[in-house]
Structure formats: structure tokens, C-alpha cells
Amino acid sequence: MKRRIEINASRLVSIPFVKAHACGNDFLILEETVAGGDHAALARKLCSRNTSIGADGIEFIDRQSARRDNLEFFLRLFNADGSEAELSGNGTRCVAAWLAHSEGLREAALGTQGGVRRCRVIQANDPVYLIESEMGVPHVMPRTIEIPGIGAVDGAMVDVGNPHFVLFVDREDFGAHGSSWQQLGAAISTSPLFPQGTNVEFVRVLSADEITFRIYERGCGPTMSSGTGTCASSAAAMVLRGTHRELTAIAEGGSQRTVWPANDAIMQLTGPAEIVCQGNAFQSDPTAAVTI
User: Per the confidence metrics, is the pTM higher than 0.85?
Assistant: First the structure.
């Protein structure tokens, strides 16, 4: 008697990708045409550190949508957990570096869900690029929030095209309210006070010209760096702590430079982006099974 066995031995689909990082905040860059419709599932699969390429998120380059808005490029960002975010400052800079490498562009206007971000290459030493980005006008709103089991937490909600909550801390380990910054960051990031979640920064002011901070990113947890987190931390320090309008902001992955002439001006962010590799990932196409 023959047995009929269904084996999920479907053909593999090759997905071209580029990997880049900005101060350790790493991203995959894919063309929208290879997404296959389910961006969230693809992000969860490819961003897995242990079973796939690994990254904090994927930047999808959507050229078709860009043309509808009279832009060359539109970016859709999906975090490692599959959630979609408005934008990433570091991710946008990684895409600008890739476009400089692959298409020779030294300036690019990149559309995002959080607005257009204009990037300019100011130094190129392929595969490393130093890029200045226009990051929009930050909005800083001092706020005290209540976190269950912790109590009142003073800080500021900062909008830089995506949401942030910034706390100022004194401890060198960035802990606050009897918790590590990672624990408190997770509690704030997922609090019902922020139905869409929020990024959380823990900031120490070192001098009028320099801050250092840690980031708990919505959708992926602690990260080495964050472009929008750098901008949010800098804006809060400038408005609420009276620092200078030009700052060096230091995260675990390195330093970036912010310039914000006035509260109603566009903030400029300058930092590096490095192309790590390019290759092909493989995704199963489960439309066929082998019968034995």
C-alpha cells in the first residue's frame, strides 16, 4: 500500500538585499517590488538575529509611490517585530548611502510616512559615507506620565516625525526610578498612554555642547543608535536644559551632530552610514508541494 505524503518542499524565491548600518543601528534595504505584499512577515523573518540576516528593521524603497508624490524615492520602514513606523533617521541615511554607492547620487529627497527627508553626502569613502540630513522641525512638550508600579515619570514628548519620550537622568548606567533604562524603556514604550507605542530616550547632559543617551526603540527594543532619537534627545536638551543649539550626541554606537538654530527651524543631523554587504535571501514559496 502506497502512502501519499505531502512535503512542503516548495521552490525558493531569491530576494536581493543590501545591509547597512549607521552607528550600529542596522537595516536591510529592499526594493518594494520584492516585498510580495506581506512586509510585516518578511521583516520578522529577515530581521531575526539567530535564524536569518538580522537587522533592526527593513527600509523598502517604493519608487512607484514616490512618482505619485513627484519624488524619486519613498521609503516604508518596518521594524524587526513587523510593525510599521513613520521613519528612521538612521535608516534614511543608510538608504542615502546606498543610493550614493549604487546610483551615484550625492543628494536625494526621500519621502517617508513622517515627511520628506533631504540627505546630502558631505564626505564619501566608499563604503562609508558622512551624510547631512534635514530632519524637520521638532516639537518638544514637557509631560509627566504615570507608569504602573513605577509612579510619576517626568520627561518630554518629542515629535520629530515619529514619537519619542525623553527622560533626563543623572546615573552613569542611565537607570531611573529604581529600574534599569531597558526595563523602564520597555514599560514606557508599550504603555497604554501611547496607543501606537513610543521610542524612549534616557539622556545625560555632559556639557553645554555634548549629551549622551540610550535608546529603547519601539518595535525592536534597545538599539545602538537612533537618528530620530538623536534629534529628539538634542531638541529636549536644547529646550529644557538650555544646551547650545549645536550638539554632539553620543550613543553606544557612536556620535552624531545636531544643529537646530531655533525652535521653528529645521534640525540638521550629520552622521556616518556604512554599507555592510549585499546578497540574496531565500524565501519559501509554499504554492507547491511534492507528493511521494
Answer: yes
Nearest to 237 by CA among 144, 152, 138, 147: 138
Sign of CA dihedral 150, 230, 115, 20: negative
CB 76 within 8 A of CB 66: no
Adjacent-strand bridge partners of 144:
154
The percent of the chain in helix, strand and coil, each rounded to the nearest 5, is: 20, 45, 35
* 268-284 and 128-134 strand pairing: antiparallel
Helix axes 227-240, 89-103, angle to 10 degrees: 130
pLDDT tens digit string along 11-62?
788 999 999 999 999 999 999 998 888 999 999 999 999 999 999 999 999 9
Contact between 66 and 30 (Cβ < 8 Å): no
- Determine the Cα–Cα distance for residues 177 and 144; give it in Å rounded to an integer: 13
Domains of the chain: 12-135+275-284 (3.10.310.10), 139-265 (3.10.310.10)
| Inter-CA distances, 49 with 20, 55, 161, 200, Å | 15, 7, 28, 22
Cell of 66: 514616490
Residue with cell 539567530: 50
Which residues on adjacent β-strands are paired with residue 59? 29, 77
> What is d(CA 148, CA 158) in angstroms, rounded to the nearest whole number?
22
